[in-house]
Design a protein that fits this description.
243 residues; alpha+beta; two-stranded antiparallel ribbon; globular; binds zinc ion
Length: 243
């Protein structure tokens, strides 16, 4: 069996989650605080859908991913991080650029290589291999290279907190750049995958090298998209009614 990250032939590959389980829970609550994970078993019971798993990585590579994911989880759940909020965005500061950026990149890469039917088929072309190399070599790249933009839709998190929506290609390019949208942890994520992303005009939308991560408050299209998703999911019986 060949590990998809290091490409070495391994006796056994790990049953890896495609997306970390904690992304199935909301990262933000209605009181505009980022959540602390509940240790109350009763609160957790039945609220977490099953994750999606596939044998993709060897033990060593899995460890690497765990490190980035553990860091990202701390960012969202650790209230000791400095957070500044204004009308436009919630901005985290003092993040470590490398693990958080690699975490973001790992989400879109894993979505692109899995064959699980629950995940949309996305074809990143040559970017899949470029992403693999960067992940393998621990190279987070420039802020605009495979950067993602995080948005907090201004509607009740109740609706959004019970599913993840794996990345799918957006129908129209943004300024000529291909992009993929997803819902993780009740946030709307936009991944920019483009050869000429260095030309993107507003690079402050990404995680900066000095560790500022903006999460933009949005209405309009992102809200509509997420509402549509939620009602589709309810219609398909994939979400339990929380009332
Ligand atoms: Zn490996």
């Amino acid at each position: 069996m060949v590990c998809r990250l290091c490409k070495k032939d391994r006796r056994l590959l790990r049953e890896s989650h495609i997306f970390p389980e904690w992304l199935y829970k909301p990262l933000y609550d209605d009181n505009h605080r980022f959540f602390v994970l509940s240790t109350d078993v009763n609160m957790r019971r039945g609220t977490r859908p099953k994750g999606i798993y596939q044998r993709l990585l060897c033990h060593e590579c899995e460890q690497r991913f765990s490190k980035w994911e553990g860091y990202a989880r701390d960012v969202f759940y650790d209230l000791s991080l400095k957070v500044v909020e204004d009308d436009r965005a919630v901005v985290f500061s003092d993040l470590q650029y490398t693990p958080f950026k690699l975490f973001q990149m790992s989400l879109i890469w894993r979505a692109s290589i899995t064959s699980r039917p629950e995940v949309h088929r996305i074809n990143l072309g040559p970017h899949t291999e470029r992403l693999r190399k960067m992940l393998f070599e621990n190279r987070p790249g420039e802020v605009y290279e495979y950067g993602s933009i995080l948005m907090l839709p201004t509607l009740s998190q109740e609706l959004m907190q019970q599913f993840v929506y794996p990345p799918e290609s957006i129908p129209t390019k943004i300024d000529g750049h291909s992009a993929y949208r997803a819902v993780f942890g009740g946030l709307f994520w936009l991944f920019i995958v483009s050869n000429h992303s260095a030309r993107l005009p507003h690079q402050e939308v990404f995680l900066s090298k000095d560790g500022n991560l903006p999460v933009f408050k949005v209405g309009g299209p992102a809200v509509k998209f997420m509402q549509q998703l939620a009602s589709d999911f309810f219609a398909a019986g994939m979400l339990r009614d929380s009332k």
